């Protein structure tokens, strides 16, 4: 098969734009056999932004051949060829227009897109941007956005795709090809051709392939894995003291890393954690960046757990940190700890694929968003030939992939347990089994609270717990001990039951009923028929209620705020809108209808299970039961919200103007979880260690202790608090600059503030040649600054990236920022923490506003009301400490390594002008702080960075 890989550089992306460069590479027999490249002289001046992007100038194309000549030279390459491109629709469009303009017939061969194949064949790829993909695979790509370089890079990616297809098991290929049989697309044709070719090359040998139910699996049965030790067998020699254990670890570290030096702060943390775990004491320990926090708690936790034969649980807030512990820290510990141990990672059940549901989905061909879901299914088939964990985190989905995953992920309601033919290969049960036989279990905060709600049936029994990223513990507790109902939270299970006359669980069940030789078949089918109008009525009533709820949440909003705004409204039982009685009537009808539907389905399911033992029917009924339980939970959540009978909860609505009623979310949560945390953890666990880089405010832990339910332990031996010294020399590494004459938002108004901000950021970015991260508290302000700053920095060749504008993917934006030599990154929300940009990629951090949570947010408002009843000042007791911790997280983005050095600019002058401002500066880990005029900012940055260069030269 002959492939021609093409790439065009053009004057723009509109049909009226022109080609200015072509790159073409020919692939035959799995090798590059020919290439062609040429500039093309356009009839117009090349736009400035294209020159900036591609480096192609008017001078470079002034003597180039015209389009007619170039097309005539290209034409022979396309004979009997399959066209390949990265984002093929773009290049194909320009190719066809070029052929038409030059009097040639349109290209009529097959067209394939590397983006589709890369997404399918390499499901772990986080981005499909050409330069990033080539960087990931180590493919040379010297001149991105030049057609010759892009075409060559795409050709190498295509060869990689061909190799990956060839390496896939035959049955995997056949399953993927079957997904596209009915699509009649070029991709479907190609996959079928590859499948047929593969089948002709090999013979299916069951002794050399591990096949199960026609899927290629590399996962061994989980019940084959046994504990490392017999019950009662000691893990550590009794004579091995903690000091000797640490000595052996340090010796192993020095052997593995010749330059290894013991960190004083990490050493202290190891000792503090060990003492707390061994003496059954709770510990709050703040450990800044560079401490080596993970090993600081893992090393003592392992020793104590192995010594006392007790399971140790470590919980993180983010899945990213969970994966870091699995992939980096645990393998290191297994090399340096002087005794064998087993560690396991356990996530929430919905993170794991249910193989039975996935098989059923593919057999039925139940694809709601046909093309997107077929691609996702193909991704997962490739992934199933490689994965060991079956974990959602290993796949990066396309636009509808997350919805597809939710339909095939593991859940308690639809689990057949040991009756499932997939049970011994089940990813979730495997993970649970591994956690049961492990010495150390890595989980997350969400699962800790889900385990509490499940009456401690998910996690192994434990008495010792380490909580990393503990500054999020209270927030997660509040969310998980509450509930929420999205519009689709009720609509999706209804659609799964019955979407239309062609799809739905009930229609599939009726088909299966028709195949059963049972006297009750007609009666069962009649029951199902009677449910269709009820389901339609519920959908209609839910849409009506959602529209009315949207009116309630949006009526107090600002209609001029634009589509990006988020409407939020707290609902108070004593201050409900006038139309609430109408809404309650609709909810009553919904409750009654849903109760009747679920009762009938429960009865139908019970009768059919008694009369039929066919696996196909049993599997379908299990999924149906799971769906019914989702409906019951949605019904009960709706009732709890609408009645608002529990005074310890805060209730609120959220929505966006863009999706209107379909964006409505009903939310409720306990506004004070301190007593709940105390009862669930600190009163009943022997020792809980809470750690984070940001737990103290004003050098004390009073705020964190109060939020976490540890206030009553503060003056007792049961709790110890420790703030570790920073391992970094912040006095030399970080300079905080505060422009004291910078306008405030309130005083100057948004327009004047943004003008001043853009001007200052422009000057700073030019001085630092980009390498600037700007943290916002308002997405609206970010968008305004992005637009202006982009224009003002264009002439300097400095690119501006904006969160939610260039991408919403934090990891992708961070990589783009690091890969671009001159770049400014504007971030909000998630960029305040968890972002690691070490080295020269980040020289300057700008914080636009102190990160106060909006005081009118329902949760903040409810907490404030609660504090007022206790005669406390909500601003000083809640708002300031919350903002300080967030501020410390933001500050921590600058210095990530001992060699990092840079500047923090704080544009919010309230830190100088208010009495509470000192809380922010006093909580920082000792950087140099200066306040000066705006005009002195750039000269001081120049001076500071010059000092850095001189110091480095002296060190050399």
State the gist of this model.
With 956 residues, the chain is an alpha/beta fold.
Secondary-structure blueprint:
Blueprint: E1 2-10, E2 19-28, E3 31-39, H1 48-54, H2 58-61, H3 67-74, E4 82-85, H4 88-101, E5 111-113, H5 114-121, H6 130-137, H7 147-167, H8 170-179, H9 186-201, E6 211-212, E7 215-216, H10 242-256, H11 264-278, E8 282-286, H12 293-308, E9 312-316, H13 319-336, E10 343-345, H14 355-364, H15 370-384, H16 401-408, H17 427-437, E11 440-444, H18 445-453, E12 464-467, H19 473-480, E13 483-486, H20 487-497, H21 505-515, H22 521-554, E14 567-571, H23 580-611, H24 615-643, E15 649-655, E16 665-670, H25 674-682, E17 687-692, H26 702-708, E18 719-723, H27 730-733, E19 734-739, H28 745-768, E20 772-775, H29 779-793, E21 799-802, H30 810-819, E22 823-827, E23 844-847, H31 858-869, H32 874-891, E24 902-906, H33 910-913, H34 917-922, E25 928-932, H35 937-955
Parallel strand pairs: 1-4, 4-5, 8-17, 8-18, 9-11, 9-12, 10-11, 12-17, 19-24, 19-25, 20-22, 20-23, 21-22, 23-24
Antiparallel strand pairs: 1-2, 2-3, 6-7, 13-16, 14-15, 15-16
Helix pairs in contact: 5-7, 5-15, 6-7, 8-9, 8-15, 11-12, 18-19, 20-22, 20-24, 21-22, 21-24, 22-23, 23-24, 28-29, 28-35, 31-32
Task: Please provide a written account of the structure.
The chain has 35 helices and 25 strands. The protein is of the alpha/beta class. The protein has five domains: 2-167, Nucleotidyltransferase, domain 5 (2-Layer Sandwich); 234-342 and 438-481 and 684-718, P-loop containing nucleotide triphosphate hydrolases (Rossmann fold, 3-Layer(aba) Sandwich), CATH 3.40.50.300; 354-420, no CATH class; 484-670, no CATH class; 730-955, P-loop containing nucleotide triphosphate hydrolases (Rossmann fold), CATH 3.40.50. A hairpin with a 2-residue loop joins β2 and β3 (31-39). α8 (170-179) packs antiparallel against α9 and α22 runs antiparallel to α23. The protein is globular and about 85 Å long. Residues 206-210, 559-563 and 952-956 have low confidence and may be disordered.
């Amino acid at each position: 098969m002959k492939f021609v890989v093409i790439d065009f550089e053009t004057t723009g992306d509109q049909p009226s734009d022109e080609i200015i460069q072509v790159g073409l590479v020919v692939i035959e027999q799995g090798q590059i056999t020919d290439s062609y490249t040429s500039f093309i002289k356009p009839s117009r001046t090349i736009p400035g932004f294209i020159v900036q992007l591609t480096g192609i100038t008017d001078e470079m194309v002034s003597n180039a051949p015209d389009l007619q000549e170039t097309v005539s030279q290209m034409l022979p390459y396309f004979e009997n060829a399959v066209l390949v491109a990265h984002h093929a629709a773009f290049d194909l469009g320009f190719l066809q227009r070029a052929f038409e303009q030059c009097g040639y017939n349109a290209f009529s061969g097959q067209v394939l897109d590397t983006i589709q194949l890369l997404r399918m064949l390499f499901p772990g790829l986080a981005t499909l941007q050409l330069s990033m993909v080539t960087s990931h695979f180590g493919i040379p790509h010297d001149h991105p956005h030049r057609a010759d370089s892009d075409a060559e890079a795409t050709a190498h990616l295509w060869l990689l795709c061909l190799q990956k297809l060839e390496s896939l098991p035959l049955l995997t290929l056949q399953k993927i090809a079957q997904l596209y049989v009915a699509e009649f697309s070029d991709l479907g044709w190609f996959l079928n051709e590859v499948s047929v070719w593969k089948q002709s090359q090999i013979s299916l040998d069951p002794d050399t392939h591990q096949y199960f139910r026609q899927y290629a699996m590399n996962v061994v049965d989980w019940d084959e894995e046994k504990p490392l030790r017999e019950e009662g067998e000691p893990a550590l020699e009794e004579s091995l003291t903690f000091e000797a254990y640490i000595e052996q670890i340090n010796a192993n570290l020095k052997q593995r890393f010749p330059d290894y030096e013991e960190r004083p702060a990490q050493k202290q943390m190891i000792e503090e954690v060990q003492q707390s775990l061994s003496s059954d004491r709770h510990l709050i320990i703040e450990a800044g960046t560079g401490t080596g926090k993970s090993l600081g708690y893992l090393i003592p936790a392992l020793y104590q757990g192995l010594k006392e034969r007790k399971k140790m649980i470590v919980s993180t807030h983010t899945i990213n940190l969970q994966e870091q512990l699995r992939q980096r820290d645990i393998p290191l510990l297994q090399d340096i700890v002087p005794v064998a141990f087993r560690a396991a990672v356990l996530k929430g059940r919905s993170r794991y694929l249910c193989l039975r549901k996935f098989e059923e989905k593919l057999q039925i061909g139940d694809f709601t968003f046909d093309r997107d879901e077929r691609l996702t299914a193909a991704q997962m088939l490739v992934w199933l030939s490689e994965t060991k964990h079956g974990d959602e985190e290993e796949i990066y989905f396309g636009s509808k992939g997350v919805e597809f995953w939710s339909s095939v992920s593991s859940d308690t309601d639809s689990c057949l347990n040991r009756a499932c033919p997939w049970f011994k290969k089940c990813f979730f049960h495997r993970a649970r089994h591994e956690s049961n036989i492990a010495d150390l279990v890595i989980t997350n905060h969400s699962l800790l609270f889900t385990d509490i709600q499940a009456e401690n049936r998910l996690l192994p029994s434990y008495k010792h717990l380490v909580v990393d990223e503990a500054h999020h513990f209270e927030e997660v507790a509040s969310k998980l001990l509450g509930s929420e109902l999205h519009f689709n939270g009720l609509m999706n299970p209804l659609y799964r039951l019955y979407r239309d006359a062609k799809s739905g669980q009930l229609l599939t069940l009726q088909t299966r009923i028709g195949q059963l030789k049972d006297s009750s078949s007609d009666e069962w089918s009649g029951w199902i028929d009677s449910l269709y109008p009820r389901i339609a009525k519920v959908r209609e009533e839910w849409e009506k209620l959602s529209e009315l709820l949207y009116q309630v949440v949006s009526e107090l909003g600002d209609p001029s705020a634009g589509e990006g705004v988020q409407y939020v409204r707290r609902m108070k039982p004593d201050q409900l809108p006038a139309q609430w009685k109408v809404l309650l009537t609709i909810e009553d009808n919904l409750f009654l209808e849903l109760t009747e539907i679920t009762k009938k389905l429960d009865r139908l399911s019970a009768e059919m299970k008694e009369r039929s033992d066919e696996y196909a029917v049993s599997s379908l009924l299990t999924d149906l039961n799971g769906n019914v339980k989702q409906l019951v939970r949605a019904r009960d959540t709706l009732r709890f919200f609408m009645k608002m009978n529990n005074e310890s909860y805060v209730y609120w609505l959220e929505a966006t103007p863009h999706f209107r009623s379909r964006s409505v979310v009903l939310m409720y949560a306990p506004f004070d979880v301190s007593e709940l945390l105390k009862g669930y953890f600190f009163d009943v666990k022997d020792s809980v260690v809470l750690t984070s880089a940001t737990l103290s405010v004003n050098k004390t832990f009073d705020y964190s202790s109060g939020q976490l339910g540890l206030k009553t332990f503060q003056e007792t031996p049961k709790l110890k608090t420790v703030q570790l010294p920073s391992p970094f020399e912040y006095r030399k590494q970080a300079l905080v600059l505060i422009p004291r004459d910078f306008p405030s938002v309130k005083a100057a108004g948004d327009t004047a503030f943004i003008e001043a901000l853009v001007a200052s950021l422009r000057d700073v970015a030019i001085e630092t040649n980009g390498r600037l991260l700007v943290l916002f508290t308002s997405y609206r302000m970010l968008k305004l600054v992005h637009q202006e700053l982009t224009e003002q920095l264009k002439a300097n060749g400095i690119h501006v990236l904006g969160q939610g504008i260039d991408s919403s993917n934090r990891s992708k934006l961070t990589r783009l920022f690091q890969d671009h030599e001159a770049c400014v990154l504007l971030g909000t929300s998630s960029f305040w923490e968890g972002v690691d940009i070490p080295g020269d990629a980040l020289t300057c951090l700008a914080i636009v506003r102190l990160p106060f949570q909006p005081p009118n947010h329902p949760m903040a408002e409810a907490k404030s009301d609660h504090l007022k009843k206790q005669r406390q000042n909500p601003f000083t007791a809640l708002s300031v400490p919350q903002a300080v911790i967030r501020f410390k997280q933001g500050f921590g983005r600058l210095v990530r390594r001992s060699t990092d050095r840079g500047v923090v600019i704080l544009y919010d002058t309230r830190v100088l002008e208010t009495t509470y401002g000192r809380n922010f500066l006093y909580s920082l880990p000792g950087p140099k702080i200066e306040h000066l005029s705006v005009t002195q900012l750039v000269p001081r940055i120049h001076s500071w960075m010059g000092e850095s260069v001189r110091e480095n030269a002296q060190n050399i």
